[in-house]
Amino acid sequence: PPELTNSVGLPLEEGLVVVRNVLQGAGLRDKIKIIASGKVSSGFSLVRTLALGADATNAARAFMMSIGCIQALKCNTNKCPTGIATQDKNLQYGLDPTDKHVRAYYFHKKTVQAAADIVGIMGYTSFSQVSGDDIMRRVQRSQVRTLSELFPEVEPGCLLEGKGPERLQALWDCCGTDDAVTRRWIL
Questions:
Q1: What are the tens digits of pLDDT across the range 36-57?
Q2: N or C: which end of the chain has fewer CB within 10 A?
Q3: Are the beta carbons of 78 and 86 closer than 8 angstroms?
Q4: Which residue stretches of the chain have pLDDT < 50?
Q5: Predicted pLDDT of residue 25
Q6: Contact yes or no for 14/168 (Cβ under 8 A)
Q7: pLDDT value, residue 7
């Protein structure tokens, strides 16, 4: 339901940073890969997501748009007018795989090329070299900050030592207990 999808969880950036910091604070970041999705639809959004700590990204909506999704919001009704999100044979006529696979292929190719171009312009030869220090965001009319400033990383192992940032440490300390706080934490 919309109440659930629109109100539970965190947006990609904030959620990714929480996961990255918990793994890093627990000393597990080098052992677990993070795959992020959520409005990753352009070369820049791909680079930004990697800069915030993702090891890989994926996309769904952008690919659906590339093959003709018109966002009719009927995905869950089996009445998608474009034939993309339906099992109804009468509606699937609009989904011609011989044409649509080419569109999806070129969308992917151009998106990855745009991301590679951005990384190259930054002076890097690999996506893994990008960090939050490389991307700026305007936070006020005359003020910009790097993603690293907006979403600072925690020290490796700090949660295990009880030295993490206050809210993250409180979350870590109460996890795995039956404490009522565990069920209502909000970052």
A1: 998 899 999 999 999 999 999 9
A2: N
A3: yes
A4: 180, 182, 185-187
A5: 96
A6: no
A7: 75
Distance CA 109, CA 11 (A): 26
- 149 and 17 in contact (C-beta within 8 Å)? no
Q: Using a pLDDT cut of 70, give the percent of the chain over it.
A: 91
The confidence score (pLDDT) of residue 119 equals 97
Q: Which helix (H) or strand (E) element contains residue 143?
A: strand 143-146
- Amino acid making up residue 78: N
Q: CA angle, 151 as apex, 179 and 137 as ends, to 5°?
A: 145
CA pair distance 10, 130, nearest whole angstrom:
23
Which residues sit opposite 144 in a β-bridge? 138
The residues, any chain, with a CB within 8 Å of residue 134's CB and separated by 6 or more, are 51, 122, 146, 147
- Nearest CA to 48 out of 132, 129, 107 is that of 132
The SS3 call for residue 86 is: coil
Closest of 131, 148, 116 to residue 43, by C-alpha: 116
Contacts of 111 (CB under 8 A, 6+ apart): 41, 42, 43, 46, 59, 62
In one letter, which amino acid is 31? K
Cα 107 to its chain centre, rounded Å, is 18
3-state helix, strand, coil in the chain (%, to 5): 50, 10, 45
